[in-house]
Amino acid sequence: MGLRFTVLASGSTGNATVVSSDAATVLIDVGHSAKKIEELMKEREISGKDLDAIFVTHEHSDHIKGLGAFARKHQLPVYANEKTWGAMLKTIGDIPDEKRNILPTDGVMEIADLRIESYAISHDAIEPVGYCFQSNGAKLSLATDLGYVSDKVMSRLQNSDVMVLESNHDVDMLRMGRYPWNIKRRILGDTGHLSNEAAGEALCSLLTGRLKRVYLAHLSQEHNLMDLAKLTVNTVLENNGFFYQRDEFALCDTYYDRPTPWDVVGK
Ligand SMILES: O=c1ccn([C@@H]2O[C@H](COP(=O)(O)O)[C@@H](O)[C@H]2O)c(=O)[nH]1
Q: Which reaction does it catalyse (predicted)?
């Protein structure tokens, strides 16, 4: 096997993803209570005992809500960059020194046969990152909570087999929606969240023959619908000359309240 993964939950109410290689299993973000994360994992027939480590993208509560309790309960090592550690320590409570690991913002590390690459993203957290995972020739990339896809990010995402890509909002729905103007401005800004259109535009530069599936993620419950996100992304792709068959490439759903099915990436 290359990799397998499940997005346990995705959206501003809580985020968590499990990624496994043959010899390692990691959890990325713990954005629900520890109890809820256990329940979501149980739905995919895994538990905290199956994990080797936790990786953190950034310190916003929808990414670290249950981190401290979950890491302590399962005595798991936690990886985050130095600034993120500084920003989240008060919230997550005590993590023993031997379980605290500082990961470079743009770095690579390995756990058994799982290669984990972190890369800087543009979001209004102290030093947020995305992650790419590789094992046995398979590559999975996670890119959510980013205001825009920089050239640097684009280069990290190239050659992915599968991606989890933010498609947070429909711009018109957000503009007409009930959020206060300062929050709308934040979401639409360079350190906010990717719109459906922006996700489609990013995919125009990423859709090589290798990319087989993109999970649209971190959808707003207020300003988006999965069908609308897919329609918009597809329209952008088609307007840019990208037409594909279902067996060549697919846009897939994530959910704020339930896990995606396990997806196997690569052989
Ligand atoms: O009252 C609010 C609602 C949301 N936010 C933040 O906005 C973005 C997008 O939220 P969605 O739920 O995806 O629409 C997210 O970062 C929320 O935390 C907010 O600050 N205040």
A: 3',5'-cyclic UMP + H2O = UMP + H(+); 3',5'-cyclic CMP + H2O = CMP + H(+)
246: domain CATH number is 3.60.15.10
**pTM of the predicted model, to two decimals?**
0.98
Q: Which residues of the chain have pLDDT under 70?
A: none
**Distance of CA 187 from the midpoint of ligand 1 (Å):** 8
| pLDDT for position 208 | 87
pLDDT of residue 246: 82
Residue 251 lies in a domain: yes
**Does a structural domain hold residue 164?**
yes
Range of the domain at 131: 4-262
> Is position 255 within any domain?
yes
- Point out which residues pair with 20 in neighbouring strands: 4, 25
Q: How many domains does the chain have?
A: 1
- With respect to residue 267, please indicate whether it lies within any of the assigned structural domains: no
Please give all residues whose beta carbon lies within 6 A of any atom in ligand 1, as ranges: 12, 168, 179, 183, 187, 193, 220-223
Is residue 3 within 8 A of residue 20, CB to CB? The reply is yes
Q: Which helix (H) or strand (E) holds 175?
A: helix 171-176
- Give the DSSP per-residue string, 86-150: HHHHHHH----GGGEEE--TTEEEEETTEEEEEEE--SSSSS-EEEEEEETTEEEEEE-S-SS--
Is the separation of the CB atoms in 14 and 65 below 8 Å? yes
Per-residue pLDDT reduced to its tens digit, 133-190? 999 999 999 999 999 999 999 999 999 999 999 999 999 999 999 999 999 999 999 9
